[in-house]
Amino acid sequence: MPIIIPNKHTSPVFYPKENYQIVKYMDLTKFVSLLQRKSLFFCRLDKLEDHFEGTTAKSNWQRRYDFFATSHLRSTKFKKLNNEEILKEVNEYFEAEKRMKSLKTICCWNISDSESAALWKIYSDFNQGIMITSKVTSLIEAFKSTEEKIDLSEVEYINHSLDEMPDGNKMYPVIHKHKAYSYEEELRLIHTVNYSGGLVYDWTKEEIEQGKYLNVELDKLIDNIILSPHSPDWYIKLVENLCETYGLNTTVMKSELAKE
């Protein structure tokens, strides 16, 4: 199923408005896995190190309190809640969001027309890292034959203690992230698993409980492969041989940050 093109009936996302370059950093092990599986890994939100992932801003608490405090004014079907009942409703709302974190999976890319020394160090290996380059249109094309539904969104960065985020949809906490990570300039693919009532999904039936692998057409996805700045000459040949072995026709080159 193609990546979802947003409309008034779909979940709200910050869908890309232009076709720009995106990159993805990884180590050799993940690159080999990508070639072997012809799949990208989508990690569960609740397994990421950033505990703000998938959570609503703290400042939204008052807005939700006010909503439940005045909900009886919007319809004759609602009774006025006392303070204890209001707090219960608000807390249940936040608890539901926490459970949703295990049902949302993401695959992250960086919006960039060049390399980043910081991202080389954080997400790969300065000696044997790999950066894949692609474009928004290539990403969309590469997932056209994938069975699962996938949303695509740029990430908006906020201060979870001070800023408010929109309310009323389960997607909002997924497309917002803490400002501490704004250097990533992230574009993320989002897949929601088919969960049962009670916001539950049996992850033991998956190969890896930390997330899911979703099929992708690598020839359409990958424009170029860039090798990390300090990678040895033999590493270039190794990656070229791997691409040839798995039938990936692409250009492999060394980082422009490398010493001559």
Give me the secondary-structure topology.
Layout: E1 21-26, H1 28-37, E2 39-44, H2 60-70, H3 83-100, E3 104-111, H4 117-123, E4 130-135, H5 136-142, E5 151-154, E6 156-158, E7 176-178, E8 186-192, E9 211-215, H6 218-221, E10 224-227, H7 233-245, E11 251-254
Parallel strand pairs: 6-7, 10-11
Antiparallel strand pairs: 1-3, 1-4, 2-3, 2-9, 3-8, 4-10, 5-8
Helix pairs in contact: 2-3
The tally of domains stands at 2
The helix/strand series, from N terminus to C terminus, equals EHEHHEHEHEEEEEHEHE
**Approximate shape:** elongated
Distance between the termini: 45 Å
How large, in whole angstroms, is the Cα Rg?
Answer: 21 Å
- Helix/strand class: alpha+beta
Task: Note the total helix count.
Answer: 7
Q: Count of DSSP E strands?
A: 11
Helix content: 25-40%
Mean pLDDT: 91
Low-confidence segments, ≥5 residues, pLDDT <50? none
Largest sheet: 9 strands, mixed
Portion in beta strands: 15-25%
Description:
There is one protein chain. The protein is α+β, with helices and mostly antiparallel strands and 260 residues long. The chain has two domains: 186 residues, no CATH class; 44 residues. α7 links the parallel β10 and β11. The mean pLDDT is 91. Strands 1, 2, 3, 4, 5, 8, 9, 10 and 11 form a nine-stranded mixed β-sheet that branches. A two-stranded parallel sheet has the order 6-7. The longest helix has 18 residues. It is elongated.
